[in-house]
Amino acid sequence: MSKNVFVEGPISSEFIAESIAKHQSKHTIGAHNIFLGQVRADVIHDNTVVAIDYSAYTDMANEALHTIREKAFAKFDLTCMHIYHSLGVVKAGEICLFVFVSATRRKQVYEATEAIVNWIKTDVPIFGKEMFENDTFTWKQNNNG
Questions:
Q1: Per-residue pLDDT for 118 more than 60?
Q2: Which residue has the higher pLDDT, 25 or 117?
Q3: CA 21, CA 33: separation in Å to the nearest integer?
Q4: Which of 104, 132, 140, 141 is least surrounded by Cβ atoms within 10 Å, i.e. has the fewest?
Q5: Mean pLDDT of 40-64
Q6: 24: pLDDT strictly greater than 80
């Protein structure tokens, strides 16, 4: 069974720092790469996003993320990888996605991080309700940009 990768609410800087610090004693790692997805205060139809309320089919999403993990380790020469995504309300400016990869060489971590984030966007059943300052909402449309 794969581990749960969901964090309730925003992903804190303390959580991120603790995850990174655990790898400082590993002497075979030459490169780390971190992707932090942050909720943007986009303006959509003259309404500003103040938060996103994330939900997921957690069993399916965890399985999809486990598959992404296996695919990334098979395609790239990685030493380690962590993926965490928020569930619940995350305000504009807060972190909702944390991807951390390590490898012996830097080229692998750059390529792997981009692929992993793209796979998450296209393959994982996580849904975001963009909440506006006027108390209305719309369902977030994923893109790979």
A1: yes
A2: 117
A3: 13
A4: 141
A5: 94
A6: no
- For tokens 């030493």, name the residue: 79
pTM of the predicted structure, to 2 decimals: 0.91
Question: Which residues partner with 139 through β-bridges?
Answer: 129
What does each C-alpha distance from 82 to 34, 63, 138 come to in angstroms?
10, 14, 30
Q: Which residues pair with 51 in a beta bridge?
A: 91, 131
At 68, list the tokens: 């992404």
54 Cβ partners below 8 Å, 6+ apart? 85, 86, 87, 88, 89, 90, 96, 126, 127, 128, 129
Number of Cβ within 10 Å of residue 134's Cβ equals: 10
Kindly give, in sequence order, each residue whose CB lies less than 8 Å from that of residue 38, ignoring residues fewer than 6 positions away: 93, 94, 95, 96
Provide the strand spans (E) within 42-125.
43-44, 47-56, 78-91, 95-103
Cβ neighbours for 6, distance < 8 A, ≥ 6 positions apart: 56, 58, 61, 62, 84, 85, 86, 87
Question: What integer is the mean pLDDT of 20-27?
Answer: 82
* Cβ neighbours of residue 59 closer than 8 Å, sequence gap 6 or more: none
